[in-house]
Amino acid sequence: MERHKKNGIQRWAAACLAGVMFLSLGACGREEGPKNLISQEESKERVVNLFSPMEKIDPDAENIARSASDRTIIMAEEELGVNVAYRTYTAEDYQDKSYDDVILERVRNDMDDLYLLNPDTLLKLGAEGKLMDLSGLESAENLRDIIRIANTVDGKLVAIPQEVVAYGLFVNADLFRKYELDLPETPEEFLECCRVFKENGIETPIGANRWWLETFVFAQAYADLYNGGNTEAEIAALNSGEARYSDYMRPGFEFLQELIDCGYIDAEKATVSEALEGEKEDFLAGKTPIVMAYWGAANTETAYGKTNFEMQVIGFPSSRGQMPVMSVTGFGVGANAEHAEDAMRVLEIITSDPALQVYSETNRVISPSKNVKVECIPALQPLNDRIEEGVYVLGSNAGMKVEQWGNTCLIVRELLNGATVDACMEAFDELQDAASE
Questions:
Q1: Single pTM value for the model
Q2: CB atoms < 10 A from the CB of 268, how many?
Q3: What letter does residue 105 receive in the DSSP assignment?
């Protein structure tokens, strides 16, 4: 499996979770302003240094459509009288280092105060004691239970997100009606829909890329773990080695293998296709009835926000019905942050219910707070209904010793390239054994 070649790609894949969040912010539209490079040495103002993938626009510019994140930062700055100075990651500046590589270096060297962190770095830095415990913040009390679990390491809440990125199946409802098909709930029903489409001349019922097929796996692997009322105990068993990740993952990988064997997924095309690149055109043209994407893709015309047919976004097939898959990034405060007190206050404000309401309404995304509700477009209603019912699984969880999103993505890619299901399960066993050493 050439495991030694995967490390850099794995970190990059995990970093995409933060990237999805901030790419969606760019859709708000903004003029270019001078970079905020204020340092504590150059100003007597109280400063909180934030490291993230996104630059802050000119704080003094007028008539600019602020991003959702900017708006919450402004709330904190005005209430506390501090200046939040953005220190940002760009590929040009760091060349071959991934965002996660740089985050690890910066936190370990106490270079900033507040950080946007992906689940794998949350796990590492939390285990190293490099992040503050945020459980005492008022905003922490409002988190959805499952989000709290996903950002807890060694009993400490080490990060709080501003949004939850939900993934679902984007389906052409007109084609389902044409062939008298109900939207599928279970893996068996999904396979039957694909069979009918194939028999009626739709060559490849599922449009796929090399990044998001793991969502099918997560939905089946963790439907019971996250919705069966025993989440913490099951995760503890996985972390101790008493339970095996491969046992959870096998049904999802066998399902993907069947989709490939039946020709419902073009594995060769998916392997070389970036997200949206290989499937978008055929989906919009009505040639492919099913694709997978994240929540925000339904809100923007650059993705699937404008179709000539009725689009519905539903959960992935599972034993518990349509199952949304959610990933979580989060803001953490360095344990040795120079401006720790102010950083904690800033974080409490930007993750408060009022700020999250502003953020969620601006970006039209799902809030991590159980108190914040936002109206969604009709296409997203089926997915949103399940999430509001508390039915979903996490594709990223800092509480698991084995990083989920990036590792599963890479092992799914091995399946696409011809690896057997058994070989893929061996890869999960190797990861679990290594994490226990």
A1: 0.79
A2: 12
A3: H
